[in-house]
């Protein structure tokens, strides 16, 4: 999938992205150019698996990234924990915003990103800092319906794929939509669409 560079491939039937052979992402718009909304999609991996230094830093060596934390249990998480946030501040990162899942938007030095290895799940490019959307998996208490997909679209989301085996839908959702969905009784869990590395 172009959205995830050459190092990842979508796995049918799983709500994750399987990293088969992570290679350092290449700049999307010329040598060292900063990713833009025209060249990067929501969920595009900046660094994961082998954790290379991501491309696209500004003139000060800084990047704004969405940081997705690791899920260690099956309990629903409605936001990042204090321990999650401490991981970012430990590498001198500045947390700009919190999502209603285990993820934050942060500004940090590109050279410090590899220090997140084995502490977070992935660092994702931010196509448009004015938008606060994230690729997530919404898991329901029963099989999702067409009405569920329509509701996600009404909330400003973009439905990517149903995951019927897991009673889930993978979608790109604004953070406000996640907040709304947590209040619905048929929604059991919302989590960032994860990265699983084989190397």
Q: Key features?
A:
single chain, five-stranded antiparallel β-sheet, Alpha-Beta Plaits, 3 helices, alpha+beta, about 200 residues, 2 domains, four-stranded antiparallel β-sheet
What do you see in this structure?
There is one protein chain. With 199 residues, the chain is α+β, with helices and mostly antiparallel strands. The chain has two domains: 2-125, no CATH class; 133-193, Alpha-Beta Plaits. The chain has three helices and twelve strands, in the order ββββαββββαββαββ. The protein has helices at residues 82-90, 146-154, 175-182; strands at 8-10, 16-19, 45-47, 62-68, 94-98, 103-109, 122-125, 133-140, 158-163, 168-174, 187-192, 194-197. Strands 3-7-4-6-5 form a five-stranded antiparallel β-sheet, with helices on one face. Strand 9 (158-163) and strand 10 form a beta hairpin. The chain is globular, with a radius of gyration of 16 Å. Mean pLDDT is 82; it is low at 1-34.
